[in-house]
Amino acid sequence: MDRLKIAILGFGSVGKGLAKIIADKNLGIIITAIADSKSGIIDNKGLNVAKVLRAKKKTGMCGESTITPQTIIETAEYDVLVEVTPTNAITGQPALDYIRAALSRGKSVVTSNKGPIALEFRSLQKMAEDNGCLLKYEATVCGAIPIIHA
Fold first, then answer.
1. Which of 71, 81, 85, 119 could pair with 10 in a Cys bridge, judged by C-beta atoms 3.0 to 4.6 Å apart?
2. Alpha carbon distance 51, 108 (integer Å)
3. Are residues 26 and 59 in the same domain?
4. Residue 35: closest CA among 84, 89, 101
5. Residue 146 has what pLDDT?
6. Quick one: which of 38, 39, 37, 42 has its CA closest to 7?
7. Backbone phi, then psi, for 62, in 5-degree steps?
8. Where are the alpha helices (DSSP H) in the chain?
9. How many other β-carbons are positioned within 10 Å of the β-carbon of residue 21?
10. Contact indicator for 109, 102 with CB cutoff of 8 Å
11. Quick count: other Cβ atoms within 10 Å of Cβ 31?
């Protein structure tokens, strides 16, 4: 069975936490690309997450400054884009453009970003439907409510 390939945009607390969980567990998921606000890294066979985390801690960058989120969206191999960049509730940017670009490529998107969902939910949902992919946004709600893992 093919493993699910994901790309992560946003490598702050949420993105790093997600990458660590995926690396530590055998979930059948391969992370092929990661970008933060200053850099990015792509390996379509799967990144060494521990190495990327060490680089981020040491240098503040997860990869090369020439690799941008847009580069990842357009060129990396992934099934799902995980978009966990900081929220801009006024414009939804840059996350709104990232989500639109991935959906237009027929890539499913999971986001924790309230801005794009609050501002453009209907158009994003239609774009996902029109391109045969999914838009998941459950992480955008109830962020302040503690969840007990059962």
1. 85
2. 26
3. yes
4. 84
5. 53
6. 42
7. -95, -10
8. 13-24, 49-59, 69-75, 95-104, 114-130
9. 12
10. yes
11. 23
Q: Are residues 56 and 96 in the same domain?
A: no
Which of 139, 125, 35, 126 minimizes the C-alpha distance to 87? Answer: 139
SS3 78: coil
Q: State whether 88 and 109 are in the same domain.
A: yes
Distance in Å from the first CA to the final CA of the chain: 28
100-127 in b/e burial notation, b at 16+ Cβ within 10 A?
bbbbeeebbbbbbbbbbbebbeeebeeb
| Closest-CA residue to 82 (of 20, 144, 2, 18) | 18
Residues of the chain with pLDDT under 70: 1, 139-150
The single-letter code of the amino acid at 86 is P
What's the confidence (pLDDT) of residue 149?
43
Residue 132 token pair: 């045969």
62 is written with which tokens? 């997860």
Query: Are residues 62 and 105 both part of a single domain?
Result: no
- Tokens (6 digits) for 100: 């639109």
Predicted pLDDT at 142: 55
Q: Give the sheet arrangement for strand 135-136, strand by strand.
A: 40-42, 29-35, 4-9, 80-83, 108-111, 135-136
Domain count, the chain: 2
In this structure, what token pair is assigned to residue 23? 């690396």
